[in-house]
Amino acid sequence: MASKSCVIFVPTPGMGHLIPLVELAKKLVFNHGLSATFIVPSMGPPPKAQMEILESFPEGINYILLPPVSFSDLPDNTRAETRFILTVSSSVSSIREAVNSLVASNRLVALVVDLFGTDVFEVAEEFKMQKYIFFPCSAMSLSSVFYFDKLDKVVSCEYRDMPEPFQIPGCRVLVNGRDLPDPVQDKKNDAYKWFLHNAKRHYVSDGILLNSFVDLEAETVQVLQKREYGQPPVYAIGPILHSGSRDGFDESECLKWLDDQPRSSVLFVSFGSGGTLSLEQLNELAMGLELSEQKFLWVVKSPDKSANASFFSAQSNKDPFDFLPKGFLDRIKGRGLLVPSWAPQIQVLSHPSTGGFLSHCGWNSTLESIVHGVPLIAWPLYAEQKINAVLITEDLQVGLRPKVNENGLVGREEIAILVKALMQNEGEASNIRQRINKLKEAAVRAVGNEGASTKSLKEVVDKWKSKNQ
Ligand code: UDP
User: Fold this and answer.
1) Structure pTM?
2) How many other CB atoms are found less than 10 A from the CB of residue 248?
3) What distance in angstroms lies between residue 371's CA and the mean position of ligand 1's atoms?
4) Beta carbons of 297 and 336 less than 8 angstroms apart
5) How much is the pLDDT for 253?
6) Which residue of 46, 377, 399, 469 is surrounded by the most CB atoms within 10 Å?
7) How far apart are CA 307 and CA 383, in angstroms?
8) 17 part of the active site
């Protein structure tokens, strides 16, 4: 009997990259009769959270863990994005070996990488697989990636110093250079060169699977699909999100606490798997939440100078509660609950007591908030999160963005005012709530049986199947 068509996935390190790829693989296996194998490069022993995901793969999805690459010769200040790209590019020969071990017993149809993994395309070409990118961010970000080569040629200063905002093709709002992703904010850093390299490589893929949906970013998706810059076909197939519980973390306490709170009364505060605040900022946030007099559930990580200190592990090394202001825990008793490092975010956002989300604007968190109709306070930290914050607050208008003061901090008063406005439905907040509820309905439609995203994914699968018969 002929084997099922198999799709190879190569994720770059980080939970935010792995989770949506796994969910896409599940759709391919459960809804389209394909099989999937994850070939997983790593830069050290795999983090616990990652192993839990790999080990709980359902039938039809397998994984091969590659030997870790060594980065002992990289300078300490090497950016995360450089490490992602080098992890994959240094693993190309072991990826080739892994693919070779599958070729005899599988009909390999496509290789899917994420946005930092385009160096693996050479392996796809050798084994005559189609080469696709799963783009785990917004259409706005994808458009900026395609536009980046041009920007590089015409902008001679650092982007953060650009005097005027500019338009990313297809986007309704202007962005400032300082809102472009972190890795491009220092042209002298190697991350810039690597980002540009990967951006250019997006053009050589056979197609891009975009984790967004037409009704969310209609104009941008349309412009991308016109392919005016010679882009490959773009398929909006989102929202693709993980659906539920993860083992190994104490999930019960915060959900039980939410059960006892009034409807829509709790602000969920979380900066994703990797986001960390400085000690000073952590202190301001604590005081701001206290001043707001609103209920909150806060996933606290120990402070760090770097904004993405826990990206690879999702866990704090030190007890985060030790860094909170004196007496804080006593003062907020009954009104606020703190959880160290990790919370079951999907269950929290889908809980009826949750009424707002102060988020770092990671794209998965943004989509999860939209899918559950929870309005946002947009507090971007790193990566492409500032572009997401622009999309959330200025284009979609489903969130409020706090101002950063002259010391580079979001001050306690600013936090308290925004939290109160959002949770009490004051002023613009009630419009925000209505808008996000409309998008919630559109998200459900997009991935329904007749939805645009469902149809787009089927189109891709049909293409894969037909080319490899
Ligand atoms: N997440 C979670 N609990 C946490 C932090 C994060 O379940 O305490 C999940 C969240 O639901 C999302 C992913 O981890 O699916 C984070 O992805 P995102 O793109 O928002 O941010 P990143 O962590 O990649 O910066």
Assistant:
1) 0.94
2) 10
3) 14
4) yes
5) 87
6) 399
7) 10
8) yes
